[in-house]
C-alpha cells in the first residue's frame, strides 16, 4: 500500500466535496463555493492518497482570517495565534487504519513551528466517545463549550499546547524565519490581492 500525504490540488476538489458530504452527521456539509474558499485560503489543506485513490483530507486555518465559523471565531477572540482544525474526513474504506493519527501528526508538525496552540472542536450532539477519546489521548484539553448558532449542535472547544513553538520562535522565527526546506514550506495557493501569500508546495510521505 503506497500512502502519500500531500497538499490538495485543484483537480482533487470534486472528490473532496463528495467525500465530505458522504461523511454523515459528524461533518458539516459543504458546497462548491465554500470548498473553493478553503482551497484559496486554508493554510493547511492536505489529502491522503492511497494507491492513487483519495482516502481522506484535513483542512486547517491560522488566526487572522475572515472565516465565519463560530468555532473559529471563538478561538480568534480568545487566542492571538493558533492553528484551527476545521475538519478531517476519512473515507469509509480506509477508517480504523490509523490514517486520522497520521493526519494529526502531520498537522501538529505544521503547527508547532508556527504557533503555540493547535485547536479544534468535537460535536457533543450526537456525542461520539471514540472521537472524544481520540482527542484526549492526543493531548487536547477542553477550554469551553458552545452551541453552533441558535439551533445548531453543542460542541466542545479543544486546545493543545505546542511546547516546541517557543524554541522555534526564539531560534528561527525572530531571526529571519524558518529554514527554506520542503517540509517547512507553505502550501501553494493564490489569493487575489494578497501579496503576503507564498507560493510554495511540498509532498509528504509518512
From TrEMBL:
<feature type="domain" description="N-acetyltransferase">
    <location>
        <begin position="3"/>
        <end position="163"/>
    </location>
</feature>
<dbReference type="InterPro" id="IPR016181">
    <property type="entry name" value="Acyl_CoA_acyltransferase"/>
</dbReference>
<protein>
    <submittedName>
        <fullName>GNAT family N-acetyltransferase</fullName>
    </submittedName>
</protein>
<dbReference type="Pfam" id="PF00583">
    <property type="entry name" value="Acetyltransf_1"/>
</dbReference>
<dbReference type="InterPro" id="IPR000182">
    <property type="entry name" value="GNAT_dom"/>
</dbReference>
